[in-house]
Amino acid sequence: MRIERVTNTVSLKRTIDSGTEEQRKTVIEILTEVQDKGDLALKYYTEKFDGVLIEILKVDRVEINEAYQMIDETLVDIIKEAAENIRDYHSRQVKQSWITMKDNGTMLGQKITPLDAVGVYVPGGKAAYPSSVLMNVIPAQVAGVNRIVMVSPPDKEGRLPAGVLVAADILGVTEIYKVGGAQAVGALAYGTDTIQSVDKIVGPGNIFVALAKREVYGNVDIDMIAGPSEIVILADETSLANEVAADLLSQAEHDERASSVLVTPSMELAEQVLIEVERQVKLLPRVEIAEASINNYGAIYVTKDIEEAIKVVNELAPEHLEIMTKEPMELVSKIRHAGAIFVGRYSSEPVGDYFAGPNHVLPTNGTARFSSPLNVDDFTKKSSIISYSKEAFMENGPKIAAFARLEGLDAHARAIEERLKS
What we know:
The chain is α/β, with parallel strands linked by helices.
């Protein structure tokens, strides 16, 4: 990690991973095999990549009951409470269909319809992410999606993580399949004998999952192509260096390519945080990952004042932004680009990752400049409603025909004029 004085503009070291040509060819081959051979391809690639032969892809009730036996009841209660918080937050995002009437009889409106079926990819193998289940499934449920399908790669014993199964069961997900990687994306996009296709695929995964999602987009919708995690902390001299350092490292332990950045007008704080980061990183179980992240993608930017610090933050457009200043709420209105904004000392980023309620599926790689966290709208589609009365048609028909001819579309104009004749 380095300390730099801001002299001009700054940027995160963007790490959008488009994969290699070899990886892309592998993904296309897998997707083609899934289209051609269905379940046989899923089982073949699961054995090849995950090291286990799965005869029955769908998780049964016995496995779910066994998962409950492996999770402490206190943790089950925590998952349930987190789910309630997430559901409450997303229920406030729901939009209603609407219709408006004009005096001439024109009726215009918008019909909001939930998607029929959504596939949720949950990373697995060596790791367990029940929070990913909650964050991807709940907004879909709140939107009114009837069919939610979950896929996740099995471990060497052919099982899914107990926490993932418990979280899915708490939410009432009944279609859970032990398959991951590009082959799982292919199954969700194209369908097999066991797994019926869906309309949209959401959820994070490795480079092969990301490339597969990119390849099937158009056949189905996807949420985003997410990059490594990012955190930017905007802090002043009132912040505690040990807390700032801990929050920076909370992202660094995710991935060697994760980016952790402090922006502050205080050189004293910058120097103290650097010392704390070097001390605390040695204490982490994932020390090698965190050190690689901090050394390659970590930075401390020292600005002349808080206004310049805000400008730097908006240039970075981070996935996560923590504001740890004397009066943090006063700065929120000045932030234009951030996926999620954590306000104040007690709003550490993990609060949002797991429990508070807002979604932790956030735009990365500076895409917070133009995109938003995963939300209820992502699981709906909108249809326009147009109904003209005779009065409105007679009033506006000649204008519409003229506009059509301006574009050289004579048949459009005639479709209007035939009605004007009668």
